[in-house]
Amino acid sequence: MNFNLITATILLLNSNIAAQTRFRTPAQIPNQIMTAELRAVDGSPDVKLVNEKRTIVLGMWAAWCGPCRLQMPELDTLNSRYHERGLSVVGLVSLEDHANSEEVRQYLRQMGVGFKSLWITKDTSEILDPDHLLPITYVITNDGTVVRTFLGWNSKKTPQLLRRSVRQALKRAKARKGENHEQ
User: Which among 37, 66, 117, 174 could disulfide-bond with 91, CB atoms 3.0 to 4.6 Å apart, if both were Cys?
Assistant: First the structure.
């Protein structure tokens, strides 16, 4: 493989985290996505994100995406570590980007992830990832408000920043619940 191509790829991957604000990503996950019944990749019952009543990490990925492969174990760890505190990690994958659904299920088995992955349409993918960058990860509240967006994956920086964002979002959710109980 060409050394210059490898170097350019590494630089691009490392720069994604620093360049987050230059891309078009929503500040709010649209209601039609939050309330849509999304099919689970594993065939389990359909899911509405709005029904989660939790802080959500939405991770858009594809089986062919190298940085997505690096991201999956961290997302799985987040799901295990923070699930009892009110976090749901949800993977979003577009069937249009894959040869077939079995390819995706095989990928998930190979990665050994325990979080739920859901099929999304090309239109939904365009709304959440208009610049066609994968992986893209959103930390959102259960009403779809985006707390933080991560484009790309830098194995040294992104996991720490993602964990910090999850803790902040969970803290906000807990404070909001306290305010609601006082009223």
Answer: 117
